[in-house]
TrEMBL record:
It comes from the Bacteria. This is Uncharacterized protein. The lineage of its organism: Bacteria, Bacillati, Actinomycetota, Actinomycetes, Micrococcales.
Length: 65
């Protein structure tokens, strides 16, 4: 299987969050989960969703729907 890390920015884009817009701590959290839980695992995807949600809320000044 090809590098699943390449899919992280694509998934974030679907959540309307750009990888470069994330804070370094959020990026570190995503990569730590990638290595700890494995790419594509439910736990890793949950971390990505949580990070995307926080980033969206920060950039849009409110709760994500």
């Amino acid at each position: 299987m090809r590098d699943c890390g390449a899919r992280i920015p694509v998934f974030l884009a679907m959540c309307k969050v750009h990888w470069r817009a994330l804070r370094q701590a959020d990026r570190d959290e995503v990569w730590a989960s990638y290595y700890a839980n494995g790419p594509g695992s439910p736990a890793h995807m949950a971390v990505i969703v949580a990070v995307a949600r926080r980033a969206y809320e920060r950039s849009h000044g409110g709760e994500a729907r």
